[in-house]
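Hi V.,

Quick status before I head out on leave. The structure for the redesign project is tokenized and pasted below; the design run finished overnight.
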């Protein structure tokens, strides 16, 4: 193993960066929806050995810091490029206007995100050590930088390494205790452990290498954690709310048709038709459910300004049946910057059987460059603009909030990518009974993007102990129980409905109660372990040094 590791340790210059890039590409195979977790057992040890070489080149952090940063950055670019290529598909919807930006998006976006992994490599190199200690350092560094990536500049925690735990349902259940960032620590610590096999330690008297024993210990601990999660899932019992039946409507409208005025009537009529279709002898139409749910921006016009459409909704809904729909909303009067600002909101409306809007939620976490243009005064002169072409873009609402419903538990309404943010999906003061995520993934076609989005919805259910109902324009629409198990779903690219009873919430999980405190406890554990092992290693070397 030493001779094999040495091939990576001695790399220099562009060869070092190229191999780090390839290692990142291999690591991307572990992310949803492929979930090839062994790819991390191959790629992360290579990253460790490359960093071994970087840190061996000089005792001065100032000398080795640039190489450590560039190594992590190259790994990050390799990881994010295949994980996020699908973002470019959104720029093909209005290709005449946006297609010129695709090369920049495909290259610059993963390059920018790769910077966080560059800082992870740099941070670990500040106190780089040998043996198991450096594995703990790398796990801590990646966890901290993934957390920072999820929060800084409004955050973008997509493709966090912890999602690869979804390869095994039992391992994924640990998110109930430590969240996806805690899973990142576990995944990096475990999958980088084969790098321990290369080192300078001697064989122990019982014939086992200290290195092999250390790796074996890590794998056993990971296996024990996996069994804890598997036991949690094995004892899970599905319970459902009494008399709450939801109908998820997936109209499968192509994005290039969605806002074309000539398709407005067809789209709206299709929504009404799907909402009242018969699916089984027990569910013959809208009268046999309690909640009809349409996806993000389902209605291709301003509903509040269209009394005829509201009348048709009232005609559709029997008494005690509620429609929850994504829709654009605009106040009819007001001044910019005031509560009555008449700019558009990306909203969810709750409509009763009389066609009246009884509650609403405005998307709080808007997509940069999608729903608004950051630094617009600087970037617009360069020809940049947001993908959704509304004058002034969208204005954010206040969230997350628990919306009380007359005929169901309170719900946390989330629009599109708001579901990807751990610890930011519910109101901590008023815990809801379920999470509803309406989305429109038609922007990204049949790519891996919608599948990754769906995986993150499942993770939020596990973290919070709350069922998640996901309603997507083109898919994947699903009912997910509070353990992240998919009860019913409709795949990508299919038109139809999903009828289901609403799962009950379970008590708040450990992670829901204590949040990221457990994540930072893990980081501190990693740092303390690295420090302890470093001191122990130096003491052993001093004890074994021959006396001259």
């Amino acid at each position: 193993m030493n001779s094999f590791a040495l091939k990576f340790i001695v790399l220099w210059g562009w060869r070092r960066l190229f191999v780090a890039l390839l290692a990142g590409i291999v690591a991307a195979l572990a992310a949803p929806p492929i979930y090839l977790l062994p790819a991390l057992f191959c790629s992360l040890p290579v990253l460790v050995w490359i960093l071994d070489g970087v840190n061996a080149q000089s005792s001065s952090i100032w000398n080795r810091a640039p190489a450590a940063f560039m190594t992590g950055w190259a790994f990050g670019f390799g990881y994010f490029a295949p994980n996020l290529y699908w973002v470019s598909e959104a720029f093909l919807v209005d290709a005449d206007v946006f297609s010129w930006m695709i090369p920049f998006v495909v290259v610059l976006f993963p390059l920018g995100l790769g910077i966080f992994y560059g800082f992870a490599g740099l941070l670990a190199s500040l106190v780089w050590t040998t043996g198991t200690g450096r594995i703990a350092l790398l796990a801590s560094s990646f966890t901290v930088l993934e957390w920072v990536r999820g929060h800084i500049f409004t955050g973008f925690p997509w493709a966090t390494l912890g999602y690869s735990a979804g390869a095994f349902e039992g391992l994924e259940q640990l998110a109930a205790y430590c969240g996806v960032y805690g899973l990142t620590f576990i995944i990096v610590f475990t999958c980088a452990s084969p790098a321990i096999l290369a080192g300078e330690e001697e064989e122990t008297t019982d014939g086992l290498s200290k290195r092999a024993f250390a790796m074996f210990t890590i794998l056993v601990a990971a296996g024990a954690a996996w069994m804890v999660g598997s036991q949690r899932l094995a004892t899970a019992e599905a319970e459902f709310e009494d008399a709450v039946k939801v109908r998820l409507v997936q109209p499968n409208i192509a994005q290039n048709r969605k806002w074309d005025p000539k398709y407005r009537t067809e789209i709206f009529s299709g929504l009404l038709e799907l909402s009242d279709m018969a699916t089984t002898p027990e569910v013959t139409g809208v009268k046999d459910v309690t909640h009809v749910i349409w996806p993000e921006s389902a209605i291709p016009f301003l509903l509040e300004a269209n009394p005829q459409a509201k009348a048709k909704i009232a005609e559709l809904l029997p008494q005690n049946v509620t429609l929850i729909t994504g829709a654009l909303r605009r106040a009819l009067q007001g001044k910019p910057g005031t509560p009555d600002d008449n700019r558009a909101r990306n909203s969810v409306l709750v409509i009763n059987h009389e066609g009246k809007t009884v509650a609403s939620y405005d998307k709080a976490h808007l997509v940069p460059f999608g729903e608004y243009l950051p630094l617009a005064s600087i970037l617009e002169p360069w020809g940049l603009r947001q993908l959704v072409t509304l004058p002034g873009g969208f204005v954010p609402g206040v969230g997350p909030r628990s919306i009380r419903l007359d005929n169901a538990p309170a719900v946390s309404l989330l629009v599109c990518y708001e579901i990807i943010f751990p610890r930011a999906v519910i109101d901590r003061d008023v815990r809801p009974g379920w999470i509803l995520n309406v989305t429109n993934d038609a922007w990204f076609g049949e790519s891996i993007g919608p599948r990754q989005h769906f995986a993150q919805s499942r993770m939020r259910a596990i973290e919070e102990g709350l069922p998640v109902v996901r309603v997507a324009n083109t898919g994947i629409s699903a009912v997910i129980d509070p353990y992240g198990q998919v009860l019913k779903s409709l795949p990508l690219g299919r038109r139809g409905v999903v009828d289901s009873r609403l799962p009950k919430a379970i008590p708040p999980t450990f992670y829901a109660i204590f949040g990221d405190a457990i994540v930072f406890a893990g980081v501190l554990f990693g740092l303390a372990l690295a420090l302890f092992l470093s001191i122990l290693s130096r003491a052993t070397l001093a004890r074994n040094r021959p006396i001259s």
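Above is the designed sequence. Confidence is low (pLDDT under 50) at residues 202-208.

G. will cover questions while I'm gone.

Best,
W.
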